[in-house]
Amino acid sequence: MNENKEPSMNADARMADEPTATPASGQPLAAPEQLAEHYREILARLGENPQREGLRDTPMRAAKAMQYLTRGYQQDLDTIVNDALFSSDNDEMVLLRDIELYSLCEHHLLPIIGKVHVAYLPDGKVIGLSKIARIVDMFAARLQIQESLTREIAEALMQVTGAKGVGVVVDAKHMCMTMRGVEKQHSSMATSVMLGAFREDGRTRREFLNLIRGSRD
Predict the structure, then answer these.
(1) Given its phi and psi angles, is residue 215 left (phi above 0), alpha (psi -120 to 50 degrees) or beta?
(2) Closest by alpha carbon to 96, among 208, 204, 188, 191?
(3) Which residues contact 60 (CB under 8 A, 6 or more apart)?
């Protein structure tokens, strides 16, 4: 079993090293200035003065931030992986755990913050380690619900690697539940998707879950 932890990267480093891609929707992106006008209108409708010193540049900052936080819509799986698949006779589990997760809830546009644990059983090929984290980031950088995000990560890794099985567990806090609504600050949500051998073989599934459980202790 090969186990790795993904080093943290700041946003500037990720942006500098991010592959470019044709927008997945095929629709032209709005210019930041166009989005900024909408944010300016929102501020005014909330009773604020968008022209005061502290808010004068906020609409443009918010527009650029939202474009960055949803950059996953302009990325695609082939570009992200970039042929980083390598022949290997390893047939033991490969685990990348504690991948930082930052996404936006599609219901309230509030942050989802947590960690993702990803494992797969190679079948003749292994994927470049950083590509697993990039796949997570691509799907996280879209408006999401955690259940869909977990499945999308698992199915994408299964698709590109042709693995015998893939397991994904996401453990995250939802600001839509901690900052508003029921305001339960200590609650978190766990979701899992098991494909192939991880679903069919209880021993493989238990090994995966035991390994990620150890990272929480």
Answers:
(1) alpha
(2) 208
(3) 32, 33, 36
56-80 pLDDT per residue, tens: 999 999 999 999 999 999 999 999 9
38 in catalytic set: no
**Annotation marks residue 106 as catalytic:** yes
107 is catalytic: yes
Residue tagged active-site, from 107, 147, 159, 200: 107
Choice among 18, 100, 106, 155 that is catalytic? 106
At 89-120, the pLDDT tens digits run 999 999 999 999 999 999 999 999 999 999 99
- Cα gap 135→19, rounded to integer Å: 12
Of 163, 189, 195, 192, which Cα lies nearest the Cα of 177? 189
